[in-house]
């Protein structure tokens, strides 16, 4: 069996995806890499870990060759809000990193590549409710621009060179394992942390802001389902729309208050509101459902209940910090 390489493994998705991959394929077969070695060693102490900067193609080439990698999950990226603070860095990391991965996969015969896209590819002028799979992509952030360009690049490498690259347009991801990492949809994660730690939260989007979201267990399951699907059933090699649940910031606050009665939330929009307003409220994921049988398991109530149970248990042990 060939090895699996994960870049950006210390991030929100990577830190949980690596655990799932190691449970499925064996700890020794999944190499977790990140530009911050101490971070990946802290969150993923079992299995092989390595420091890799995805913008350095020689280091990537060495890791792929040394480990005999046949599958890559390329998660390393600068996210939306962080990308707006330093757009040049976002472009360099997101685009150069992806091109390096695709080119090395072509040269070295990597059998399958996963690269996450995002709802950030969408922009003004599209239907915001049940956004279709194929609409003009006019993103308004550097993060979204790199994801839209990345989708085209992935499709090019598939059409031109036959690289089996697969992708999901992730909605906002809510995790009980990793604190927020600088994304616009991370208000939802932060709200849970602050509700448990302080029983109050100042939200950086409006109360009526609705965005597509997904609980991390569903996101991990969807990713594995897509990568396990037969090549014949994967008809789309840009980003698959993926729906989980959609709710407003106010609805989330009220759902949390059912479990934490003293919780209060103030809504003070900042620059991230403009980003949120350019994204869909919900997406049409019929292609993913047709191609590889996608269907979410969690709704707002079950996700909230599980988040508070998990974070609450860590808080009692003194292990929760945001």
Structure description:
With 322 residues, the protein is of the alpha/beta class. The chain has twelve helices and 14 strands. The protein has two domains: 195 residues, NAD(P)-binding Rossmann-like Domain (Rossmann fold, 3-Layer(aba) Sandwich); 100 residues, UDP-galactose 4-epimerase, domain 1. Strands 3-2-1-4-5-7 form a six-stranded parallel β-sheet, sandwiched between helices. A three-stranded parallel β-sheet has the order 6-8-12. The protein has a three-stranded mixed β-sheet with strand order 9-11-13. β2, α2 and β3 form a beta-alpha-beta unit.
Given the structure, what is the number of helices?
12
Quote the distance from N terminus to C terminus.
39 Å
- What low-confidence regions span 5 or more consecutive residues with pLDDT below 50? none
Q: Percent of residues in helical segments?
A: 40-55%
- Rg, nearest Å: 19 Å
**Biggest beta-sheet profile:** 6 strands, parallel
**CATH topology category name of the largest domain:** Rossmann fold
CATH superfamily of the largest domain, by name, is: NAD(P)-binding Rossmann-like Domain
Instruction: Count up the domains.
Output: 2
The class by helix and strand makeup works out as alpha/beta
Overall pLDDT score: 94
- CATH class wording of the largest domain: Alpha Beta
Total number of β-strand segments? 14
Architecture (CATH level 2) name of the largest domain: 3-Layer(aba) Sandwich
Q: From N to C, what is the helix and strand string?
A: EHEHEHEHHEEHEEEHEEHEEHEHHH
Strand content: 15-25%
User: Rough shape?
Assistant: globular
Strand order of the largest sheet: 3-2-1-4-5-7
């Amino acid at each position: 069996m060939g090895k699996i390489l994960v870049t950006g493994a210390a991030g929100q998705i990577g830190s949980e995806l690596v655990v799932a991959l190691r449970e499925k394929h064996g700890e020794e077969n999944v190499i977790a890499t990140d530009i911050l070695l101490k971070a990946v060693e802290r969150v993923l102490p079992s299995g092989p870990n390595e420091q890799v900067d995805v913008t350095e193609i020689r280091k990537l080439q060495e890791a792929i060759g040394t480990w005999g990698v046949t599958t890559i999950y390329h998660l390393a990226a600068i996210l939306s809000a962080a990308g707006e603070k330093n757009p040049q860095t976002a472009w360099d990391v997101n685009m150069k990193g992806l091109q390096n991965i695709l080119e090395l996969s072509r040269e070295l015969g990597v059998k399958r590549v996963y690269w996450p896209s995002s709802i950030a590819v969408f922009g003004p002028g599209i239907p915001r409710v049940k956004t279709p799979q194929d609409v003009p992509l006019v993103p308004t952030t550097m993060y979204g621009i790199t994801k839209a360009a990345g989708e085209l690049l992935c499709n090019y490498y598939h059409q031109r060179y036959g690289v089996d690259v697969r992708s999901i347009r992730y909605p906002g991801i809510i995790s009980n394992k990793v604190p927020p990492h600088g994304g616009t949809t991370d208000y939802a994660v932060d709200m849970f942390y602050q509700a448990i730690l302080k029983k109050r939260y100042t939200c950086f989007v409006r109360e009526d802001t609705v965005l597509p979201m997904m609980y991390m267990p569903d996101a991990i399951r969807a990713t594995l389902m897509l990568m396990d699907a037969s090549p014949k059933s994967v008809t789309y090699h840009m980003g698959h729309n993926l729906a989980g649940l959609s709710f407003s910031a106010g609805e989330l606050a009220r759902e949390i208050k059912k479990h934490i009665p003293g919780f209060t939330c103030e809504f003070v929009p900042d620059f991230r509101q403009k980003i949120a307003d350019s994204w869909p409220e919900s997406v049409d994921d019929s292609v993913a459902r047709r191609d590889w049988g996608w269907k979410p398991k969690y709704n707002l109530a079950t996700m909230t209940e599980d988040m508070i149970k998990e974070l609450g248990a860590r808080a009692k042990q003194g292990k929760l910090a945001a």
